[in-house]
Design a protein that fits this description.
The protein is about 30% helix and about 25% strand. The chain is an alpha/beta fold.
């Protein structure tokens, strides 16, 4: 599975640990300290654990990113680190994310830039990083985002060091972080985007927001459940809490 290989790279490889550290900071900045409603993170459950009440796909429940088993407009915040690269249908994944988010809800994503300095390495081989065909060029991704109805609220480029494998080499090339951010931002290895679901003429009222936050019911649909360690497809079910 592409996700498991990518997760191992982030935890076992010096460059992976270096990249994960910067991405964690990016995601953490966009998670409000106060209770904002229903929050779901898709993968990388070892990166962030802001609240035990948040749902982590792959850890708490299994489902495919292009077929989310959440009700329409049921989530306030959806975190998807590198989810588009592990999805067989990334555009459909964005459509599903738009569907399950409430009006003004946020989607925070990150992805590898296939046109970075890392492009010339052999890392995009499916063993370390996803193959280039699964990486979304930012120009194409922006067009898809706009066509669905998301609005880009913020963006950030991250990781300008070359594709090196040792901590010593990473330290030697660390000066490129400041230089790259100033002189060639689009050559960064990773980008992060904060997207807002915009619906013309629709803004959530305070009373509606309180109702959503106090409601435990949020999942309805075909989901993958785990039984004796194996993923099996369950029927229509409503999941109130995952303990």
């Amino acid at each position: 599975m592409r996700y498991e290989r990518l997760k191992r790279w982030f935890s076992d490889n010096p460059a992976g640990l270096y990249t994960a550290d910067r991405e964690k900071r990016f995601f953490k900045r966009h998670i409000p300290n106060q209770d904002i409603g229903k929050v779901v993170q898709f993968g990388m459950d070892n990166w962030l654990r802001p609240s035990e009440s948040h749902i982590y796909v792959y850890h708490d429940v299994l489902m495919k990113p292009d077929f989310l088993a959440f009700a329409d407009s049921s989530l306030s915040l959806l975190l998807m680190p590198h989810t588009l690269e592990i999805s067989d249908m990334p555009y459909q994944t964005l459509i599903e994310a738009f569907r399950v988010l409430e009006p003004e809800g946020k989607l925070v994503i990150s992805g590898f830039n296939p046109y970075s300095l890392w492009y010339y390495s052999h890392w995009f081989n499916g063993e370390r990083l996803p193959e280039k065909q699964y990486c979304q060029p930012l120009t194409n991704l922006k067009k898809q985002i706009k066509s669905i109805g998301f609005e880009i609220e913020q963006g950030q480029f991250m990781v300008y060091v070359p594709p090196v494998n040792t901590e010593r080499s990473l330290k030697r090339w660390h000066f490129m972080e400041a230089a790259g951010n100033r002189w060639w931002p689009s050559a960064a290895a990773v980008y992060g985007l904060v997207l807002r679901k915009r619906i013309a003429g629709v803004r959530p009222l305070p009373e509606w927001e309180r109702t959503m936050k106090n409601s435990d019911e949020m999942v309805l649909g075909m989901a993958l459940s785990t039984t004796t360690g194996e993923a099996k497809r369950g029927g229509l079910s409503k999941i109130s809490k995952l303990d």
